[in-house]
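hey can u check if this looks right to u? its 85 residues, i copy pasted from the old doc so theres a chance i mangled smth
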Amino acid sequence: METKKPKRYFRKIVKNGSSLALNLPKEWIEENQVQLGDLYEIIEEDHRLIIQKVIKDEDLDPVFLKAMENSYKRFEEDLKELRDR
């Protein structure tokens, strides 16, 4: 299996009102289907920032959610047993 090479983008810090900001690369915005108003979580880890979209239940396919709920109910006791080991 071929390892995907990470993409690198360079951006300058800009002033946005009284805050500092980074503009996101257009290519990344398009690839990730970023929309105005989307909520993103920013995690700091080892002096790096990880940016990931916050997925809300309404963003998920209802059929998928129902399947996950049914699977959880079916295996709930087994999952609890594994958790408590």
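The two ends are 34 Å apart (CA to CA).
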